[in-house]
Design goal:
270 residues, alpha/beta, globular, six-stranded mixed beta sheet
Length: 270
């Protein structure tokens, strides 16, 4: 921040005010993206870690970052930081439940973290009435699949667990077309590597810290907007919002900053 102000001869508060205005458009653009309908999506979930303010135990640090990204288009649905607890995962899964409402078929794949599937099952399940005696079972909503790739061969209790599994029962009418070779979060891992290069708070080679959680989240919101609506991806050669069918063409920095936030409406100058 200070280096940018020196190069462009600007006051720090000026840059901060533009950052806050730019980051504040994230919720508006997310609502706009959720007004669309999608046929199917494969979403990868992963976590990223950094330190905030000082060196604290991992369970107390607020620098854990949750990522939910569509595999084909590389569009990021959730990018939020905080303590690695139920509340952080729940906020991201709530966004995913909104995506499920507008998508015919959704597959969620994760590397080792079971809380994605557990919370999604709590929020997005239904009861199957088969006509058999007994209490009808609860399953994931029709069209929703969760696949888990276990990184370790044993659980904490020492029991051996399979490398690939579905942590919860799925609807009998859900198509089972997810082979083991497709159960990975490689694209999310590649994004994490990119974020470490672009955001100094996540760099591995230096012992860097973010000053505050709100400051770190603001930089993530700016990155979310830039990644989804402005910058073309190296692999797909498209802006993620265009690749997913949300926009016909990517936005420029001027167009994003010209978006007017009005109560209940969204005006985009093109």
């Amino acid at each position: 921040m200070n280096a940018t102000c020196r190069v462009f001869d600007l006051a720090k508060n000026t840059v901060l005010s533009w950052e806050r205005k730019f980051a504040g458009l994230r919720e508006t653009l997310l609502v706009y993206a959720l007004t669309n309908r999608f046929l199917s999506q494969v979403i990868e979930g992963d976590e990223l870690y950094t330190k905030i303010k000082e060196n604290k135990p991992i369970e107390e640090c607020e620098g854990w970052t949750i990522l939910l990204m569509d595999r084909a288009s590389r569009l990021i649905w959730a990018l939020a930081c905080g303590k690695k607890d139920r509340q952080l995962f729940l906020s991201s899964i709530q966004i995913l439940s909104d995506v499920i409402e507008r998508t015919g078929e959704v597959t969620l794949v994760t590397d080792g973290e079971r809380r994605y599937g557990n919370l999604l099952f709590e929020i997005c399940h239904e009861v199957v009435h088969s006509g058999k005696r007994g209490r009808p079972p609860k399953v994931l909503r029709r069209g929703v699949k969760v696949r888990l790739k276990n990184k370790g061969s044993q659980s904490k209790s020492g029991r051996k667990r399979p490398k690939y599994e579905a942590p919860h029962s799925e609807h009998p009418e859900t198509s089972q077309d997810c082979p083991d070779t497709k159960i990975h979060a490689n694209h999310a891992e590649a994004f994490n590597a990119s974020l470490r290069r672009r955001n100094s708070a996540y760099r591995r080679k230096t012992n860097t810290y973010a000053k505050q959680k709100t400051t770190l989240q603001r930089t993530l919101d700016i990155y979310w907007i830039t990644h989804n609506f402005i910058r073309k991806q190296f692999t797909t050669k498209q802006v993620p919002a265009v690749a997913l069918g949300i926009l016909e063409k990517g936005l420029s920095w001027e167009q994003v900053l010209s978006i007017q936030k009005l109560p209940g409406t969204l005006i985009m100058e093109t």
